[in-house]
Design a protein that fits this description.
repeat, 4-stranded antiparallel β-sheet, ubiquitin-like ligase-substrate adaptor activity, WD40_rpt, Thrombin, subunit H, WD40_repeat_dom_sf, WD40_repeat_CS, mainly beta, 104 residues
């Protein structure tokens, strides 16, 4: 990919260009630290983030906007993944696994 993402204790996500090393976007909106991040395999402008209070957000990194939001009602999203071809997200929180269809 052309970008990588980092999460920070100030609750932001920074998108960095691999080619230049420059920050191209700062995503703001989580109320706790984003713990896990993942880009969509086919649409590199889409990023999903999961934070320490159980919230998931889908971002468009080019417009720096949150496109979708879900609160899982649990603590700590420990891992997120996009389905390789569909608009489906899997998120793990402790011993629970959640699926989120973001196409609707």
């Amino acid at each position: 990919g052309a970008y990588f993402a980092t999460s920070h204790g100030d609750h932001t996500i920074r998108i960095i260009s691999v080619l230049t090393g420059q920050t191209i976007a700062v995503l703001e909106g989580h109320t706790r630290t984003p713990w896990t991040l993942r880009f969509h395999r086919l649409q590199s402008n889409l990023l999903v983030s999961g934070c320490l209070n159980g919230d998931l957000k889908v971002w468009d990194i080019h417009t720096q906007t949150c496109l979708r939001f879900a609160s899982l009602g649990t603590e700590r999203v420990t891992s997120v993944a996009f389905h390789p071809e569909k608009f489906l997200i899997a998120a793990s929180c402790g011993r629970e696994l959640f699926f989120w269809d973001i196409s609707v």
